[in-house]
Design a protein that fits this description.
This protein has 15 helices and 14 strands. α3 packs parallel to α5 (about 100-115) and α7 (about 145-160) packs parallel to α9. It has about 475 residues and is α/β, with parallel strands linked by helices. Pfam families: Glyco_hydro_1.
């Protein structure tokens, strides 16, 4: 067995525009659904035009102005890839304009040019937990079929602009999360029915497929993928009822991959829709559009869970409510740590789809403490990532084609769930607290140098346990 990852394996980190950029109304940007969630995905939906508040995400870590400093730090670690997102409302402030906001386009030109200086490949998510709020207010979010046209117009605009700068694209971040937080995912009220949510998801899946077709025709040398919240479940017990419940729980999120990678709705969803009295409006053209499939599967992985037919207590982890595994330990945020789960998930997805895979989010959120000598001794993060990367290497030895790995939050950022800084993921500490106070100065953590050595040696320094 080789101790090294493949030569062309892409190493890096992943961020989201609404969690790092700040400058939330700068240079013509419009309000987004993320701006209407100033206290995070689980918080109150606040009308920012009505209420005068200051939210931590309004400035975030000010990546909008400080990106040259941050890109240089990523380059020092040896990044060959940085996953980020474009804030849709920077390009089309209301979402339904014909002409884009030039200042927004220019910002991403500068960002991608800065990355190119260091030979860092951008991987760009077109919609990462945000959309122009006007599309919710005026059209009812993704419940309205018109959003397909607005999204593909946006996608075409950025494909034209960045076709020579960006060769890796993703359509929607963690597309399956709309089942759990419909406002963030599809711009629908949290009280929406299952039928309304799945209809909105259908429009999003059609938009994704049309966008994939656009990318294939406009940038033939590019690759475009989807992005799943990898919520793999194991049976809590060997009871057949638990095995079947787990089978159905995995189908709930694999459905999105099945449509995007196989080009049609799977048969099990037809049974699900029938049992739940869900009647979708789906045209013949929709079915034809869905046949355009992704080039690779990308996913986030933080934890596994269990499936059971019983009413067992559930815990909150990465948006989903999950039944905990009695055999696993948890992080201080209650997220269960399961390195072997990432190998299981990689094998599961590769066997199912036979398409290349890309791990675009993985990492440990922790309450880091800055020492007197301005560092963080985050051995717990090093252990977590070491153990997961060892299992990624094992999956590659299993024969799984893995394109790359971008850790979540290589620099501390505002958490999506609660809009706080105290859950830190980065190799780089940012001086900012939950009360939005701090200098925003960047400091290298112990893990910064560890990840640098992992990349330099292509994983040879990883320690199997």
């Amino acid at each position: 067995m080789s101790n090294k990852f493949p030569e062309h394996f892409l190493w890096g980190g992943a961020v989201a525009a609404n969690q790092v950029e700040g400058a939330y109304l700068a240079d013509g940007k419009g309000l987004s659904t993320s701006d209407y969630l100033p206290y995070g995905i689980f918080g109150e939906i606040v009308d920012r035009e009505e209420k005068d508040i200051i939210a931590i995400k309004d400035r975030a870590i000010d990546f909008y102005h400080r990106y040259p400093e941050d890109i240089a730090l990523f380059a020092e670690m040896g990044f060959s890839c940085l996953r980020t997102s474009i804030a849709w409302a920077r390009i089309f402030p209301n979402g339904d304009e014909q002409e884009p906001n030039e200042q927004g386009l220019e910002f991403y030109d500068r960002l991608f040019d800065e990355m190119a200086k260091y030979n860092i490949q951008p991987m760009v998510t077109l919609s990462h937990y945000e959309m122009p709020y006007n599309l919710v207010k005026k059209y009812g979010g993704w419940g309205n079929r018109k959003l397909i046209k607005f999204f593909t117009h946006y996608a075409k605009t950025v494909f034209e602009r960045y076709q020579h700068k960006v060769k890796y694209w993703l359509t929607f971040n963690e597309i399956n999360m709309s089942l759990h937080e419909p406002f963030t995912g599809v711009g629908l009220p949290r009280s929406s029915s299952k039928e309304q949510i799945y209809q909105a998801i259908h429009h999003q899946l059609v938009a994704s497929a049309r966008t994939i077709k656009l990318c294939h025709s406009m940038i033939p040398d590019a690759k475009i993928g989807n992005m799943l919240l990898g919520a793999v479940a194991y049976p809590l017990t060997s009871k057949p009822e638990d095995v079947w419940a787990t089978h159905n729980e995995n189908h709930a999120w694999l459905f999105f991959g099945d449509v995007q990678a196989r080009g049609a709705y799977p048969s099990y969803m037809k049974r699900f829709f029938k049992d739940n009295n869900i009647n979708l409006t789906m045209t013949e053209q929709d079915k034809e559009d869905l046949k355009e499939t992704i080039d690779f599967i990308s996913f986030s992985y933080y934890m596994s869970c269990c499936g059971t037919a019983d009413n067992s207590p559930r815990l909150k982890g990465n948006v989903l409510d999950m039944v905990p595994n009695p055999h696993l330990k948890a992080s201080e945020w209650g997220w269960q740590i399961d390195p072997l789960g990432i190998r299981f998930l990689l094998n599961l997805l590769y066997e199912r789809y036979q398409k290349p895979l890309f791990i675009v989010e993985n990492g440990l959120g922790a309450k880091d403490v800055l020492t007197a000598d301005k560092t963080v001794n985050d051995d717990y993060r090093i252990d977590y990532m070491n153990d997961h990367l060892v299992q990624v290497r094992e999956a590659i030895e299993d024969g799984v084609e893995v394109l790359g790995y971008t850790s979540w939050g290589p620099i501390d950022l505002v958490s999506a769930s609660q809009a706080k800084m105290s859950k830190r993921y980065g190799f780089i500490y940012v001086d900012l607290d939950d009360d939005n106070k701090g200098t925003l100065t960047r400091y290298k953590k112990k893990s910064f140098y560890w990840y640098k050595s992992v990349i330099e040696t292509r994983g040879e320094v990883l320690k199997a346990k």
